[in-house]
Amino acid sequence: MVNVKTKEATKQIYSGAQLLIHCLEKQEVEMIFGYPGGAVLPIYDALYDANIPNILTRHEQGAVHAAQGYAKATGKPGVVLVTSGPGATNVVTGIADAMADSTPLIVITGQVASPVIGKDAFQEADILGITLPITKHNYQVRNIEDLETTIAEAFHIATTGRKGPVVIDLPKDMTLKLTEAETTTEKMVVSLPTYQPNLNPSSTQIKRLMSGLQQAKRPLLLIGAGITAAQGEWLLREFVEKYELPVVSTLLGLGILPTSSPYFLGMGGMHGSYAANMALAECDFLVNIGSRFDDRLASCPPEFAPNATIAHIDIDPAEIGKVIRTDIPIVGDAKVSLEQLLSYPYQKIEMAEWQELCQTRQTNHPFGYDRANTSEIKPQKVIEQIGEITKGDAFVITDVGQHQMWVAQYYPFNFAKQLITSGGLGTMGYGIPAGVGAQFAHPDRDVVVFVGDGGFQMTNQELAILNEYQLNVKFVILNNGSLGMVRQWQERFHQNRLSASVFNTQPDFMKLSEAYGIKGTRLVDPQTLVEDLNKAFTYKGPQVIEVIISSEEHVLPMVPSGMPNHKMIGVEGL
User: Fold this and answer.
1) 42, 52, 302, 524: which one has the fewest Cβ atoms less than 10 Å from its Cβ?
2) 99 noted as active-site residue
3) Does residue 7 surpass a pLDDT of 70?
4) Is 391 among the residues known to form the active site?
5) What pTM was computed for the model?
6) What is the C-alpha separation between 486 and 502, in angstroms, rounded?
């Protein structure tokens, strides 16, 4: 049972479609990313007179990834509207991606009329059954009187606790039926007795954590995206500086602590820094805040932080102990937990030798590549230079593959929510539409999308949106003529048998850009790379910048799959 409280207001007769729009307005939805079709035509008709714009993407997958980019850049829920059947199934990848990365989404799918559900009607798909494992919750509205409450619940669930996607499946007849509802713009107050996320950590466990931390000789802090989701990044920085703690980040945690911080050791895991991975291997007290110990960070759980007492703070109790043994489990919101950690009586941690060791490793073994090779453009150099041009202040979006890891290693991140990427699911095709969504979220900020030639060919149709909305996004294609990460694994672990990883033919990306009315720039000369990149970034407006790189360049260092973090290959300086 849901308890709903509202102030007295005038009532009005709405169609289901009109009521849906009214409820979205009450939820302060700024825009919808969607694609119309038969089952949602009444909703699009209601949108015609509404104040909420629909961003017409060119594919439903583009809509959901754009909504993800918007959500990650703002912390607000992204809203998607698609039709039934293939329209709904085309957003499944994005829903799964949002679930993996705890991204708040409201996905509204049209459905065939109630009387023909389950009868294989035209464009019918069981979207509830399909999305059950990849959503926080899903609904199918079968009574028009339930619509308003359903929408309020969906937003509440998507944006509280561990954030995530919620699907609302709306049969077409529900959008046409009439119902009476209040015209108030006040949000419903939702209470779900069976859904009560715990925000407040146990004070006893916080005390245990702080007691263990202050006695540690080799403490380490592991930070993840849960800190950003809780808006606790400033408290995290204060906590790090107060105790002068070495810090390792997950991929999705990059930017919470600036990469320039003297306490930052880099990203940990498969393509993490030497200093970060050695710290994970040798620490005696590990505090994980807002990370779920995924297998790219901890590919060998039995040998992960083997000598450490492990404290894990997470808002999702299911994540604690799921992958890595946890000595001090703390269920709670990261921001609230950090507030309690900071309120604990201060005691200096004696760890000078550990701090010096971590910093020496960071200095002596940085991420590296063959800087002396001037016969080809190095992708790492491209990213470093763009970091300088943008002064580390751009929103950075990536697709998935080698370029994603190079960006994680070489871009100078400065703020939370800065890196927008597909972490948990690793979705190729994510980059272009996510960049579009991020620019809609922050139209006055620089947005740079790094993408490989493979991922670019999956969703490049979304370039059509750029001129229509005057979006100033720079798309940097690192073109190596292959599926770079797949090829790297084949070269290293499959006897160089390049099975289906090389593109024998490709489109002319410059002509493709021109077809969309977008400026295209191709960079091929390593001698003029810096000058060419600076010139390209002076252009105001959307641009595709294609950079030709070697197909043989690998992402290093690398922890082979299933190996412990300290067994890296390709470490600079060793």
Assistant:
1) 302
2) no
3) no
4) no
5) 0.96
6) 9
